[in-house]
Write a structure and sequence with these properties.
Blueprint: H1 6-19, E1 23-30, E2 36-42, H2 49-66, E3 74-78, E4 85-86, H3 89-94, E5 99-106, E6 109-121, E7 124-129, E8 132-136, E9 140-143, H4 157-168, H5 172-191, E10 196-201, E11 208-215, E12 221-226, H6 232-261, E13 266-275, E14 278-282, E15 287-290, E16 306-315, E17 322-326, H7 330-340, H8 342-346, E18 349-357, E19 361-368, H9 375-380, H10 385-393, E20 398-403, H11 408-415, E21 423-427, E22 432-437, H12 442-446, H13 451-460, E23 463-468
Parallel strand pairs: 2-3, 15-17, 19-20, 22-23
Antiparallel strand pairs: 1-2, 4-9, 5-6, 5-9, 6-7, 7-8, 10-11, 11-12, 13-14, 13-16, 14-15, 16-17, 18-19, 21-22
Helix pairs in contact: 1-2, 5-6, 7-10, 11-13
């Protein structure tokens, strides 16, 4: 049986799982061959299959990339189960009001009390059960096993719908219509009923009425009542799934509305997976979709790692809320700069223009709204700390920050930095700028494959014609940009 570094695996997984909103409750190596890694996660709400799948999708690639486990292995993600031990004061507070099993030792014997946890404080806990209230200190507690509930019935559906609608804020009539439509579809699938099948649910008695409306060849309608006794056994379960699906759709729509309000803002997520060049990012309530054109060329995003993205717009997906995100847009750089430079949020420094070739180079023009403020210096920061923070997020991409000016000659000269221009002549009719630079800086002004001149043209809005200064060269250095 292999020996895995469980402590190192916990240190690897725990920050990411916590970032996803879960607690890494337990981690163990098990299985007959010792090649199964079992992860138990917990949450304030009951753990669902979707929660386990979500964590598994992130943890698997993270483990593979770390190489902490040699050879093949199986990964199992689950909840701690109904009998999870309550190990600390935070657990006691979380399950206050729930049923618990309490084991405590009084002398040589052990006593077990089952009841409701009704009070938790620094002095101890109080449990109400077996016709009495007990106040205990230093106990070993566990949650009581969940009692099996009877199968849902249509008789109890009305009360359940009323309570659920009040909790999630859905009009009762809307939810009832959803349930009745789902029941009608289920009836058609089960019994192959002809005509327009409708189901009416009496919310007071739980009685079901199934009717079918058929239009005859002569144009008259015939409505008849269909048998429903055999259908009642599946009706309650169908209603339950219809309610859950409707709530899921409402939650998805709400998430998409929230996304619309945060369009153009930064969000932190966790890289989930990459499929056919598209990177999927776990943003919590929504999934970020980053197509190849919105990625920084050459950047490798590893599953399980946090990533900063810009929210663009919602995408239609019936299964879950999806949003398109980007790291390649100019606005992404704008928001990064805004997050690092408080003067931009304060309005004393403004971003006037951005030209970008993702993964290669970005030029940003900034100005100040108050005298005495150096806009470039504010963005670079003391000892370049703000500039370096932006560069660290953009990997190998170069970022030039230049002063914006109302004077086009000065603006074009600054945009060609780090090259120094000798003179700039503007033809406003053709919006062409002719720039003379020292021959020694000709290649610097043009840049690799014309990149520096091309970005300067995008930044300023002028067609730029770069030439060597008099006596240092002859003719155009390159075709105008």
């Amino acid at each position: 049986m292999p020996t895995w570094p469980i402590t190192s695996i916990r240190e690897l997984l725990e920050p990411t799982i916590n970032h996803m909103g879960y607690e890494l409750y337990a981690l163990e190596q098990s299985g007959h061959s010792g090649r199964t890694l079992r992860i138990s996660i917990d949450h304030a709400e009951p753990i669902t299959i979707e929660d386990c799948e979500r964590v598994s999708r992130i943890a698997g690639p993270l483990l593979d990339h770390s190489r902490l486990i040699d050879g093949p292995y199986d990964l199992e993600v689950s909840s701690p189960g109904a009998e999870r031990p309550l190990r600390g004061h935070g657990d006691y507070e979380r399950f206050n009001g729930k049923r618990v099993n309490i084991r405590y030792r009084s002398g040589p014997s052990e006593t077990v009390i089952e009841g409701q946890l009704v009070a938790v404080d620094s002095a101890g806990i109080a449990v109400s059960g077996q016709g009495a209230r007990f106040t205990l200190h230093g106990m070993t507690l566990s949650r009581a096993g969940s009692r099996s509930q009877s199968e849902p019935s249509t008789e109890s559906l009305a009360d359940a719908l009323t309570a659920l609608c009040a909790e999630v804020g859905i009009p009762f009539e809307e939810m009832l219509h959803t349930v009745e439509a789902a029941l009608a579809n289920a009836y058609i699938r089960a019994f192959n009923a002809p005509g327009d099948v409708r189901v009416t649910l009496d919310t007071k008695t739980g009685a079901l009425e199934v009717t079918s409306r058929v239009v005859r060849a002569d144009g008259t309608e015939m409505v008849r009542t269909l048998p429903s006794e055999d259908f009642k056994r599946m009706a309650a379960q169908t209603a339950k799934h219809a309610v859950l699906r409707h709530i899921h759709d409402l939650e998805r729509d709400k998430v998409l509305r929230d996304v619309a309000e945060h369009r153009g803002e930064l969000a932190t997520g966790i890289v989930d997976r990459s499929e056919a060049g598209t990177v999927y990012v776990d943003l919590g309530r929504a999934e970020g979709v980053m197509p190849p054109e919105e990625q920084i060329p050459g950047e490798v995003l590893h599953p399980g790692r946090p990533v900063l993205v810009l929210i663009l717009d919602a995408q239609h997906n019936p299964r879950q809320a999806q949003v398109r995100v980007s790291r390649a847009s100019r606005m992404f750089v704008h928001r990064l700069l805004e997050a690092e430079v408080p003067e931009i949020k304060a309005g004393t420094v403004q971003v006037r223009a951005i030209a970008r070739e993702p993964g290669l180079r970005t030029k940003i023009a900034v100005s100040a709204s108050e005298r005495g403020i150096d806009p470039v210096g504010a963005c670079v920061g003391p000892k370049g700390v703000r500039h370096r923070a932006i560069l660290s997020e953009l990997a190998s991409e170069h970022v030039d920050i230049v002063p914006w000016s109302d004077d086009p000659e000065a603006f074009v000269a600054a945009a060609l930095g780090p090259a120094k221009a000798e003179s700039v002549t503007i033809d406003r009719g053709t919006r062409t700028a002719t720039v003379l630079v020292p021959r020694s800086q000709l290649s610097l002004a043009i840049g690799r494959d014309g990149q520096n001149a091309r970005l300067a043209a995008k930044l300023t809005g002028f067609r730029i014609d770069i030439k060597a200064g008099e006596g240092e060269g002859q003719g155009d250095a390159d075709p105008p940009t």
